[in-house]
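Thanks for the sequence, V.! I ran HEPACAM family member 2 isoform X2 right away. Repeating your input here for the record:
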Amino acid sequence: MMYRNHLLFREPNVSLRIRELDKDDEGDYHLSLNIEFHNKTGLVVKKERTVRVTVDVPVSTPVIVKSPSHAVIEDKANVTWTCSVQRGTRVVFQWLRDNVALAPSDRYHFSQNNSTLLISPVQKEDKGNYRCLASNWVTQVQHSRPMDLTVYYGPYNLEVNSGQGLRTGEVFTINPGELVFFECQADSNPPNSYVWISKRHNATQIITEGPRLEVRSYRLAQAEEYLCRAFNNVTQKQDEAQFTLVVASLGTGKEKHTQDAGSVSPLAAITVCSLFVIGCMLLFFLRRSCHPKKVLMNIYNRPFSEQKRPHRSALAGHEDATEDFGIYEFVSIPGKMDSAQASCRSLSRLESIQDMHTTIYDVIRHVPETPSHSLLN
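Predicted structure:
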C-alpha cells in the first residue's frame, strides 16, 4: 500500500512500472506467480523471478583539492590530490598530468576508486598541470579545472658557455687583448644565485656575483682557472663548474677556421697515401722490367761459346733478320768479355748501373727498317 502511487502493476501481462525513478528505488524486485488452469481442477503452477534494478545518478563536474596547497620541495615533501563530485553514483576517476594519464608506480599511490592520488616523495618531474576526470555508465567524461603543482628543485646541469674564443673541453682559448663574456646557467626553481671565483696559486678569490662574467685578456699573464658556483636558496643545494682560460693567438679564422682545417686533414692524408702507393707501384714495375741481376743471370746461364758467338744476320745467311731486333743489354763481364765494348744511342735514357760483377752500359730498343751493317757487326 505504501507504493501504490509510485508503482503501477498491470494485468494480464503482469508488468510493473516505476514512476519518477529515484535512487531509493534501487534494489531487488521479487515476482511470485501462482498459475491455475481452469480445465485442470486443483492444478497450481508456481513461478518466481528476481529482477535487480540499478539506479545511476549523472555525474557532476569534479573538483580537485591539493594538500599542501603551496609549493613543495623535491625529495622532502609529499602531495595528496583528492577528486570529488557533488552528484553521481559508481563514479570512475582518472588523473592526468599535462594531459597524460597517470598510473600506479613506486611514488604514485591511488585509492580504491582512484579518487585520491598520493605522490611520495615529490620530485622535479612531478611538476605540471593536474586534472581529474569523472564518469559513470550514464554520464560522459567530466573534466575538473586544472591545477598546477609547483616544485622547488635544482640546481641541475650547470654549464659555462661563451660565444667567443675556442673551447676544448673545459679549456677556453682567447686572443690577446680580447674582451670575453661567460654565461653560467643551470636548471633550477627558484632561480639560482651565482658566484664567480678565481683560483690562483692554490688560493681562491670571489670576483663577482651574478650569471655573467666579464674577463679582459690583457690582464691575464698566464692560464688561469675559474669557478662558477650556483646555489638554490630554497632547496639548499649547490653545484660548481670549473674551467681554464688561456690567452693565445688564434689567427683570423678562430673556431670556424680551426674546425675547417680539422675537417680537411683526413682528405690530405688520404691524398698523400694514395700518391705514395702509386709511386711504389711504378717503381716496382720499373725495377722488374729493367733489373740488372736478371740480365746478369741470363748471361751466366748461357754457354760460354754461345756468349762469344757473333750474331748472325740476314747478310750472314740467316733467313729472317727481323726476329733479331728488340731489347739489347750490353754487359761487360770481368774475365770473360774484357774486350767487349759497345756504345749506342739509348731511347730509354737509362743511366749506367754499376754492379759488383757487371756493368750495364745501355738498354736500347732498335727496330730499323733496313738493318745497318754496323749494327750487324
